[in-house]
Amino acid sequence: WQKAERIIIVTRPEKVALMSARALLKELQQSVSSSAIHLVLLNMQEKPSLPKSTIESFLRHKISAVFSIQINDVALAANKNKPLLSIQPQSKLANDIRAFARTIAQ
After folding, report:
1. What is the value of pTM for the model shown?
2. Which of 25, 44, 70, 88 is the residue whose CA sits 20 to 30 A from 10?
3. Distance of CA 28 to CAs 8, 14, 20, 33, 68, Å?
């Protein structure tokens, strides 16, 4: 990871996950530029449990993307043994992930 151009940390807005992400960020920022680290928040609920700004303040890092994932879609993809995005390729989630991929590819 020390030679990586980009590092993507994916976490959920839950206490244990955020504490782990904060510890990882702290470790990474000692040897990697903060601009190389992209933080992605996975929201598995209809409404986020914490505001984005609160999470960013706690992690001391900007959130690059927030993906809202419906658990039913995850189960359907797993049961069909297909990638999540192939289940609903034109969904908001699929479009958000493609936009994030374009952003970090630049």
Report:
1. 0.86
2. 88
3. 11, 21, 12, 8, 26
Structure tokens at 78: 């797993």
Q: What is the residue whose two structure tokens read 């955020």?
A: 18
**Which residue is listed with tokens 């959130």?**
63
Are 20 and 11 in contact by the 8 Å Cβ rule? The answer is yes
What are the phi and psi torsion angles at 66 (to 5°)?
Answer: -125, 120
User: Rounded to 5 degrees, what are φ and ψ at 70?
Assistant: -85, 130
Does residue 2 register a pLDDT over 70?
no
pLDDT over 90 at 4, yes or no:
no
Cα 34 from Cα 28, distance rounded (Å)? 8
- Of residues 57, 58, 74, 56, the one with CA closest to residue 66: 56
Identity of the residue numbered 106? Q
User: Any alpha helices (H) in 29-91, and if so which ranges?
Assistant: 52-59, 71-80, 84-87
